Every structure is written in C-alpha cells, then in structure tokens.
Amino acid sequence: MSVVAARNGTPVEAPVAPPKVVRQRRVRPGLLGLAVLLIALGGLGAAFAVTSVRSTGTYLAVARPVDVGQQLTADDLVPVRVSGGRELQPVSADRMDEVLELRAAVRLTPGTLLTPAQLTEAPLLGAGQQQIALGLEPEQVPARKLHPGDKVLLVSTPSNATGGGSEASRGGGTRFEGTVIDTATPQNGDVVVYLALAVRDVPAVVALAADDRIALVLTEAA
C-alpha cells in the first residue's frame, strides 16, 4: 500500500509504515499459582488472628506456693489474660469467690494456670480418720521436708526386750498407712509430724510411738 506525497512540489508515491502491534504479555502459570497461594495464606492469617482474639480470656493463675489441703485465699491467686487458654480448661477469673471456698488437691506452683482438677472440697483429714502427732528426731524423718498430702507408711520396729524369739514374735514389721497433714520443728530440734490415720490404727500407733518403736517411710510425695 502507498500514498501520494509531495517532494519539491511534485507528487510521488511513498510506502506507508505498518502500524505497531503491541504484543500481549503471557501470564506464567507459576506466577499465577504463587499469587493464589499468597492470597490463601493471607486469608488464613486473618482468620487465625480473629480466632486468637476471640479465644483470649482472663483466668486465675497461682501467685505463690500452696500445699495440698490448704484452703485458697485471694493472695494465692492472680488474674491473668491468656490467649488460646481454653484448651487447658483453666478457671475463669470471675469464679474467684467460688474458688476461695475450696482446697488444693495437689501442690500448686506459682506461675501456672489454675484448673478444676487441682481443687477439692475434701480436707486432708477425711471421714473415718483421726489425727495424731508423731515426734521424730531429724534422722528419723524420711525426707528433708515433708509436705501436706505426702503418703507415708508407719512400720513397727522390733521390741528391745530381752529374750529369744523371732522378729515377728517381738511385734516388728506391722504397717500402717497415713497422710501428712502438717509438720513443725520445735526449738529442741525434733520434728513433729501431724498424721491422718485410720481410726482403727490410732491405738496401736500411739502405743508403739510411746515405746519409740515406729519408723516412718515416705511412699508417695504430694
């Protein structure tokens, strides 16, 4: 195709430049997939953020050590905000008044969230039990420190009475199960252990303790 152009006033034919064709960019499948992935990840991140905010709550945490059987006080607990704590089933802070009527079922450690499984209404001295005090020398105590809720075994030791006979005939080896309620250390250096025993075992243990024929064994720490 040509057109007429003028050169020095004389018309001449000249070729017409073809129009420029703009090539369309081809979309690479890899980039398209990456874009879709980024959009999906963004949606998941937004959903996670919303879920985290919704699951944030105020719960009760342990502020100081609490022994087994001890009734909780307001100074033992502190409210904290926790994100995603529902899976742990902690005690909500709005149940503070309800919790203060309960006791610790296990030893509570500061900095941990309080859960219903750690609480009980039952005192250490249960039904069918009586409490006794057992005075021991430091070397007779089976642990550096006994805690409320520790399970112990009281074992009778053989009599020092003269005469023959086996250990069994001298009354040694009888066992009694007990639970530590508390301990004290008087000024004389001895250790007083307060124990919960079955009512039926109290007379025998008291008699053996009077003869200094009781050994204390720790079987389970609280």
Automatic annotation (TrEMBL):
<keyword id="KW-1133">Transmembrane helix</keyword>
<feature type="region of interest" description="Disordered">
    <location>
        <begin position="157"/>
        <end position="176"/>
    </location>
</feature>
<dbReference type="InterPro" id="IPR013974">
    <property type="entry name" value="SAF"/>
</dbReference>
<feature type="compositionally biased region" description="Gly residues">
    <location>
        <begin position="162"/>
        <end position="175"/>
    </location>
</feature>
<feature type="transmembrane region" description="Helical">
    <location>
        <begin position="30"/>
        <end position="50"/>
    </location>
</feature>
<feature type="domain" description="SAF">
    <location>
        <begin position="57"/>
        <end position="120"/>
    </location>
</feature>
<protein>
    <submittedName>
        <fullName>SAF domain-containing protein</fullName>
    </submittedName>
</protein>
<keyword id="KW-0472">Membrane</keyword>
<dbReference type="Pfam" id="PF08666">
    <property type="entry name" value="SAF"/>
</dbReference>
<keyword id="KW-0812">Transmembrane</keyword>
